[in-house]
From TrEMBL:
Subcellular location: Cytoplasm
Keyword Isomerase attributed: no
Quaternary structure and partners: Homodimer.
Catalytic activity: tRNA(Met) + L-methionine + ATP = L-methionyl-tRNA(Met) + AMP + diphosphate
Physiological role: Is required not only for elongation of protein synthesis but also for the initiation of all mRNA translation through initiator tRNA(fMet) aminoacylation.
Cofactor: Zn(2+)
Pfam families named in the record: Anticodon_3, tRNA-synt_1g, tRNA_bind
Keywords: Aminoacyl-tRNA synthetase, ATP-binding, Cytoplasm, Ligase, Metal-binding, Nucleotide-binding, Protein biosynthesis, RNA-binding, tRNA-binding, Zinc
An annotated Gene Ontology molecular function: methionine-tRNA ligase activity
Protein name: Methionine--tRNA ligase
Keyword presence, Ligase: yes
UniProt cofactor note: Binds 1 zinc ion per subunit.
Taxonomic source organism: Hallella faecis
UniProt xrefs under NCBIfam families: metG, metG_C_term, PRK00133.1
Length: 691
């Protein structure tokens, strides 16, 4: 089939939920590859628009709002700013980054739904859903919890069990309850409007399975598995109070389904951009309704069905829109061999990375591209991050650039020398990189960003090999003219690197172009050997990349370890059940214990013991009492000084670590095994008895 030529390209990146920040899984799956692609098209002087924005409707927003006791709009405002600022600082070069709570979007999505409704493209259906009789509302899947029928997890959600990963429906849960009120939900009938996917199944099969065999195998395969089944009508409205009201009479208390309104956000955000600067961008219709425009969606694999089946069906039903030409969805990125999870805080958050590693945006961009989960799930580890920075960016790319520029500064005061007679080694080096443009383009055009970046890095490998073989620092002593040629070729390679890495590492490419004073450049120049003319003055060289030390990585590993420990404690607390009460004892036995209040005057760690703390207790007798307690793991001694605690006063003294302990401080054992000393609510005189 002959490849269709387009006049322009509309590129969209999945809209992140504004209920939290952006993490490395989002970056690797969607935003880094889409940014690489758009930067590449711009370098080729192609007409392209890059659309992003925050998805601000749906249940995750309302759940966080209820949890924090604020409004859904408060949640959206906070995270929209965090996400937008992080993207900008990280170099994700959107032409517009708007939001689905904007007035433009509300009107646009409402009008889109109205047209489908008036044209008879939607069907009304009644269905049975869970209803909270105490909160007086229908429950979205995430507002229902119960026991997973597959693994027995008592805290499974109505749409998924996060413990075993099974997809669920609320009706499958055992002993379901509302997370809003805790009440047992009732099954009630409700009316909603559905998109009849079943009526478009034949068209979808022809359009995708026959018309887009070039799509990535994971995308094509997932579409095929759905299309091999009987598609069912899909609800486009929900019984919620947060979202865009359904513009139909009798639809009070219902909003547009978030997966109906969110992809329309691509279009409304484009309209917002074009309305603000029509001279630069023209009309929004040219980007969404002109058959000579190519539409490309960048998404993660969990969004394939929505972008390849549901949204195209919406566009087809409307009738005025182009359809996606490609949907290069990535698989998932794991973190330290564990699934990234927002709810468990098991993630590397972009806004935190930008604080912890200032000026190192390109390092993360490089590592995420090198580990891009393009065909299967991949893994991010902090040690690999460090290794790739130190052994590739620093030792290969940065090392070659620094050698070439420093030698030019040393021998010619930073002036590009003349190129003399070419020897075989020179011709071989030139021959090795002359087709770099063709190779990188071939990979980028086919959305193989990992391989494209490898080809760019190969330029630096060629340069290092060439300069090592030629040894200009030795040749200088006997043949300075020969060194001119060696450095001339080396500098041309440096200039090529600045262009080749521009889509991948925009910050370091800008820094490199400043060092070689090359403000003007374009993609068509890649592979040439005359980018820097003889006599051209270079600027002062500096290191392009910095080594990352073990201490910086350990901080990140410690942060993840603390997260893991917190998750384990939370999990233990969820499943905690108190131990059975021991057998009854006579009250007289209890009265034999002399439990008293003691005031902690001093507390120190016991030398050579990881477990024991030594307390100096005022027990009201006028003579201080020494008590040892095995709680060193759970308390800083300084935090306990001045507290009142309960202790058993009439145990026989016992020696531990050579110190006599005169009693036992009472502690409670929590669900996670941690110990907590017992105290009094109010200040009580030392020596007061408990009973």
């Amino acid at each position: 089939m002959e490849e269709k030529k387009f006049k322009r390209t509309t590129v969209t990146a999945a809209l992140p939920y504004a209920n939290g920040g952006v993490h490395i899984g989002h970056l690797a799956g969607v935003y880094v590859p889409s940014d690489i692609y758009v930067r590449y098209l711009r370098l080729k002087k192609e007409d392209v628009v890059f659309i992003g924005g925050s998805d601000e409707h749906g249940v995750p927003i309302t759940i966080r709002a209820k949890k924090e006791g604020i409004t859904p709009q408060d949640v959206c405002d906070r995270y929209h700013k965090i996400i937008k600022d992080s993207f900008r600082e990280f170099g994700i070069s959107f032409d517009v980054y708007s939001r689905t709570t904007s007035k433009i979007h509300h009107q646009f999505a409402s009008d889109f739904f109205s047209k489908l409704y008036k044209d008879g493209k939607l069907v009304e259906q009644e269905s049975e859903q869970y209803y909270d009789p105490e909160a007086h509302q229908f429950l979205a899947d995430r507002y229902i919890m119960g026991t997973c029928p597959h693994c027995g997890n008592p805290n499974a959600y109505g749409d998924q069990c996060e413990k075993c990963g099974s997809d669920l429906s609320p009706m499958e849960l055992i002993n379901p309850h509302s997370t809003i009120s805790g009440a047992k939900p009732e099954v009630r009938k409700t009316k909603n409007w559905y998109l009849p996917l079943n009526e478009y199944q034949g068209w979808l099969k022809e359009w995708i399975l026959n018309g887009h065999k070039e799509w990535r195998s994971n995308v094509y395969g997932q579409c095929k598995s759905w299309l091999d089944m009987d598609l069912q009508p899909r609800a486009m409205t929900r019984d919620l109070d947060w979202g865009i009201p359904v513009p139909v009479e009798g639809a009070e208390g219902k909003v547009l389904y978030v997966w109906f309104d969110a992809p329309i956000g691509y279009i409304s955000n484009t309209k917002e951009l074009c309305d603000a600067d029509p001279e630069r961008w023209g009309s929004w219709q040219k980007w969404w309704q002109d058959p000579e425009t190519r539409l490309v969606h960048f998404i993660g694999k969990d969004n394939i069905v929505f972008h390849c089946l549901i949204f195209p069906t919406m566009l087809k039903a409307h009738g005025d829109y182009i359809l996606p030409d490609n949907v290069p969805a990535n698989e998932f990125l794991n973190l330290e061999n564990d699934k990234i999870s927002t709810s468990r805080n098991w993630a590397v958050w972009l806004d935190e990375y930008l604080v912890d590693f200032p000026g190192k945006q390109d390092v993360l961009r490089y590592v995420l591209t090198a580990n891009a989960p393009e065909t299967k799930d991949n893994n991010f580890t902090w040690r690999d991050f460090q290794e790739r920075n130190n052994s590739e960016l620093v030792a290969i790319y940065g090392n070659f650039v620094n050698r070439a520029l420093q030698l030019t500064k040393k021998y010619w005061n930073g002036v590009v020398p003349e190129c003399g007679e070419l020897l075989e080694v020179d011709k071989h080096a030139i021959d090795e990189f002359k087709d770099v443009k063709e190779k990188v383009e071939q990979y980028l055009d086919n959305f193989k960003f990992r391989e494209a970046q490898k080809e760019a890095m190969n330029l630096a490998r060629i340069g290092n090999k060439y300069i090592t073989e030629c040894e200009p620092w030795k040749v200088w002593k006997t043949d300075p003219k020969r060194v001119e040629t060696i450095l001339y070729i080396s500098l041309q390679l440096v200039a090529n690197l600045a262009i080749a890495f521009e889509p991948f590492l925009p910050f370091s490419s800008k820094s490199l172009r400043e060092m070689i004073d090359m403000p003007e450049f374009d993609w068509a120049q890649l592979g040439r050997t005359d980018l820097l003319k003889p006599g051209h003055q270079l600027a002062e060289p500096h290191l392009l990349f910095q080594k990352i030390e073990d201490e910086e990585i350990q901080k990140q590993l410690d942060k993840l370890a603390a997260t893991k420990e917190a998750n384990e404690k939370a999990e233990a607390a969820k499943s905690y059940k108190a131990e059975p009460v021991k057998a009854n004892v006579p009250f007289d036995d209890f009265e034999k214990l002399d439990i008293r209040v003691g005031h902690i005057k001093d507390c120190q760690k016991v030398k050579k013991s990881n477990k024991l703390l030594q307390f100096t207790i005022d027990d009201g007798s006028g003579t201080d009492r020494t008590i040892l307690s095995g709680i060193a793991k759970f308390y800083d001694p300084a935090d306990l000084i001045g507290k009142d605690v309960l202790f058993v006063a009439n145990f026989a003294p016992r020696k531990m670590m050579g110190i006599e302990s005169q009693g036992m401080i009472l502690s409670a054992v929590d669900a996670d095994g941690s110990l907590h000393v017992t105290t009094t609510l109010d200040q009580v005189k030392p020596g007061s008895q408990v009973g």
